[in-house]
Amino acid sequence: MWRAPATTARRAGGSLLARLLLYFRKHLYKLDRKPLLLLFAASLTPACIIPVGPDFQDPTGVPNSPPYVVSADPVENSTTAMTMVEFTVTPGDVNVTDPLWVKWVMEYPGFSDDTNTFSPMDPIPPSANGSEIRRPTRFKPECSQLSKKTSTHKISVGISDRPFVSPEDPNDLFAAENKAPVLVIGWTLERSCPSTP
Q1: What is the pTM of this model?
Q2: What is the DSSP letter of 152?
Q3: CA proximity to 87, closest of 99, 97, 98, 77
Q4: CA-CA-CA-CA torsion sign (143, 81, 123, 65)
Q5: Beta strands in the chain (DSSP E)
Q6: CA within 13 Å, CB half, 49
Q7: Sign, CA torsion 152/139/137/107
Q8: Alpha-carbon dihedral of residues 22, 23, 27, 28, nearest 10 degrees?
């Protein structure tokens, strides 16, 4: 009959299982029971997979960027001999909520007794409409601010989104707080200024 082999295999399987159980029962007392109990308890615990949620973070804003030049009049790095020239710079900043500080410097770089600085008291505020473009900053140099030793004068302006350091560093008159980058542009002015008696 074809059922005999199946019955024999079934009995053999049952016999093997019985022998394994007897073996474990005989040697169980020799083992440390604490890890076994933990293992047994863990095997009865239903397996659950807890999904790890996404790592939510505040969205990164626009990184801090230095101001940039929208326009300059006269053209930056140019030379002018106009008697009543007014230097005008329109700055921009991608960080639209940053105020901008301005510093005008005459006869610099090359710090000397003729070097002169002018900083408006108030910074340029952010644009009311959220634009990157800010209101222009203007400066009309007077002979009292220029060297009497030469007719060729260097005019520079620095614009930063941080206040300029105080007291001034003669080695870097455009140094800003927190080592913030500073936009610096300049011109050459040809004007003879008579010495005062």
Answers
A1: 0.67
A2: E
A3: 77
A4: negative
A5: 68-73, 79-80, 87-92, 101-106, 116-118, 137-139, 152-160, 183-190
A6: 1
A7: positive
A8: -60
Peptide bond into 167 cis (omega under 30): yes
Length of the chain (residues): 197
CA angle at residue 130 from 129 to 135, to 5 degrees? 75
- Tokens 């520079």, located at residue: 156
pLDDT tens figures, 143-157? 999 999 999 999 999
Summarize pLDDT for 23-73 with one digit per residue, the tens.
656 655 555 555 555 555 555 555 555 555 544 443 456 688 999 999 999
Q: How far apart are the first and last CA of the chain?
A: 138
CA angle (162 as vertex; 160, 165 as ends), nearest 5: 100
What does 6-59 look like in DSSP terms, one character per residue?
HHHHHHHHHHHHHHHHHHHHHHGGGS-HHHHHHHHHHHHSPP---PPPP---PP
